[in-house]
Amino acid sequence: MQRKDDLKLYIGGGYVAAQSGQTFETVDPAHNAPICNVHLAGKADVDAAVGSARQGFEVWSRMTGAARGRVLQKAADLLRAHRDELARLETLDAGKPLSETPEADVDSGADCLEYFAGLASKLGGEYQEVDDAFFYTRREPLGVCAGIGAWNYPLQIICWKAAPALAAGNAMVFKPAELTPLSAPRMAELMTEAGLPDGVLNVVQGFAETGQALVNHPGVAKVSLTGEAETGKVVASEAARSSLKHVTMELGGKSPLLVFDDADLDNAVSGAMLGNFATQGEVCTNCTRVFVHADVVDDFLDRLVKRTQAIKLGDPSDPSVQMGPLISREHQKVVLDYIETGKREGANLLVGGGVPEASELADGNYVLPTIFDRCTDEMTIVREEIFGPVMSVLTFRDEDEVLKRANDTRYGLASGVFTRDLNRAHRCARELQSGICWVNHYNVTPIEMTFGGAKQSGLGRENGRQAIEYYSQLKSVFVATGDCEAPF
Ligand code: NDP
């Protein structure tokens, strides 16, 4: 679907052209056909967006929490009213199947706006008496926050960042990944329609340089990034060096799934598939290291292989399709190279391992759902984040042994345990070094539950009540009820 017009920047409640007049082309991952040209934000545009956000902040931060909540609730309603349009936009832009995007992207974004709409009126501080005085705390917004997104959940990511930031009274300038520019400005438009004052949510488009201009901007108080761990290190250090900004970092992972010999195996297979093949495997929390107890591994693999071979891969706009293309040709090549490395290093290829044969899929960036077994802990495919549909299966015999191996990674985003033993489930949840642990399920992210990573998978948390803490700061106000007792 070629858009007629160029996609401009969304600043101050409307679309504006990039000051340099420069644009870049965005393409559809299913066909690599152009969708439209996108205005490229340079430093001057970032300055304008931050300036506009500052003006928006002056209005928005002085509104009551209840009034802010009403705008966010209206925006949630508008997202739901535009569910089909937004789901199709996301499918076109990110290649995510239409069988997923209405629920996983649009509903998830709307739920998030609704949740923080409710919280906006409930943010308070504490009051305490001390000696001849008392103090209270105020929870205050930070100012202008920068949001920088990855390309796998473009709409969800802007919602997950903007909703808590705005609920707390901040304004935001958001930069989507350059590969997926379409849904964020549409979401900002709907926020304007919901009554958001101009400038409170702005969208600038561009590459890493645009992100860098935001991260280094003196008018920005906080940076919230979703991206790779290496990008996170650069962004966090630049944010600190420029003006000691607050940061939230949602970064990569290489998460373990533990399947014990007492597990419901069909359910464990469902968990492993959810955690490797949904969204073509382009999910940060994915359990790409599946540790299966040696006594049940053959049975587990039989069931897993049959169900994986039945996955329908194809054009993501066909609602019966379960897996679409990867985001870009470059990324397809990265994932295929990892598969070759897996073969070379001696992993046993059970399913997939290349591109589909169907000629009508040749223009898209497809990779077959792929499973390797007989993997070992040192293999490259077991150690590095692939961000594609490539599952590594390893075996174990002993709980202590598997916990040690599962934790032997620089990442700590998520983990999962399948067992019918309640004690073991809680023991594993305690011992696994990760920000999230799913028990007998995988990759479900209700908005009420905090989300974020341990170790090099991140800093700070999104979602849940705690997300507000990362978009606000406390001020203590001390009030005397008697005179000062000055020693001079
Ligand atoms: P990248 O780290 O390449 O990019 C993320 C965003 O940062 C993009 O908008 C990118 O711009 C921008 N960027 C890159 N370099 C800089 C810089 N120096 N300063 C400021 N901005 C910069 O990640 P991907 O987009 O490739 O996304 C995949 C990664 O994201 C995976 O590692 C995945 O695990 C992680 N992720 C983590 C999630 C979580 O919640 N923990 C959720 C989803 C993904 P541009 O697009 O132009 O390169």
UniProtKB/TrEMBL annotation:
Metal-binding recorded as keyword: no
Domain Aldehyde dehydrogenase: 15-477
Example of a GO MF term: oxidoreductase activity, acting on the aldehyde or oxo group of donors, NAD or NADP as acceptor
One Pfam family in the UniProt entry: Aldedh
Active-site residues, as the UniProt record annotates them: E250
InterPro entries (alphabetical): Ald_DH/histidinol_DH, Ald_DH_C, Ald_DH_CS_CYS, Ald_DH_CS_GLU, Ald_DH_N, Aldehyde_DH_dom
Keywords: Oxidoreductase
Gene3D superfamilies the UniProt entry points to: Aldehyde Dehydrogenase, Chain A, domain 1, Aldehyde Dehydrogenase, Chain A, domain 2
Entry similarity comment: Belongs to the aldehyde dehydrogenase family.
Protein name: Betaine-aldehyde dehydrogenase
Species for this entry: Rhodovibrio salinarum
